Amino acid sequence: MDRIDTESLEGFHFRGLNPYLFIGTTSDRYAGWIGQIYTEKNYAGRIRTRTNRIGGNVFVEEVLPVDSVQEYFEHFPVLEIDFTFYRTLLDKYGNPTSNFHVLSNYRRHMNETDSVILKAPQVIFARKLRKGGAYIENGDYLNTDLFTRSFYEPAVSILGQSLSGIVFEQEYQRQDEESTAERLGSELDQFFRSVPRDNRYHVEIRTGRLLSPPLFDVLEKNGVGLVISHWTWLPSLCEQFTRSHGASFNSGNSLVIRLLTPRGKSYAETYAAAHPFDAMVDGMLHRSTVQDTVTVVRAALRDGRWVYLLINNRSGGNAPLVAVEIIKHWEKTSSHD
Description:
two-stranded antiparallel sheet
């Protein structure tokens, strides 16, 4: 990926830039992307609204129907589906949940060359869950049977080879909590030795102090990737990449990079600034973020890795435009390689 046809960016086309690079977004179906990714006439009378309460404020979101994913995949080769973070695919009785049906609907509108990355349910990977305004200990933390039965098996059944990755996201651990890299490593070692072997697992750790050799050794031992994530309280992308020696732990030879909130900014404030996600927000996307992203992607590609770059609206205001900025910077600096 030395040179890129920047004319393709005018139509927001990110497929085929490089056989090893897959650029996508963390979620889809935003009406704010009409005119970029989606064609307005296709959704006349089919856009629904929902309310989202964040940080004491209420926002009205306009959401496209599931079949819009067909247009999405005309522009992007991969999509991260994040609604699976909030609910399993099967309930405790083995019955399909609403997420099972929505994911099945997505699959009906996908081609064989379309790629999906799923987020594992938080009930499986979060130490604490928020209930009634407080965080309580999660009794199903690292429950291997729950993961296998209620999520992994139905996900593989629905998506098959279109499933390119599963991201296990763990919430930020405060300094006064007992979690250490050694303890987390031991827990994850037991978990990943007990679930079905798969080279599509990736772990996102949102606590910088835990990103150290005791954790890295366990990930490498089990062939589980470390997600390089641009998020509120994490070190820079380059620092994470360097600290983890290139994060070359995934046995499938792939790396997941997620661009989420700007460092030092909360979910609530960046959501409020970016909503309704139809334009870039001045000052939200830092130049260093773009530079670090290109640096890490280039390094991983040179190592022969499959790279999944997943972009959130909150990283700059509008994910498709953030992707354009990254590719433009790549092209601008390619002559200096």
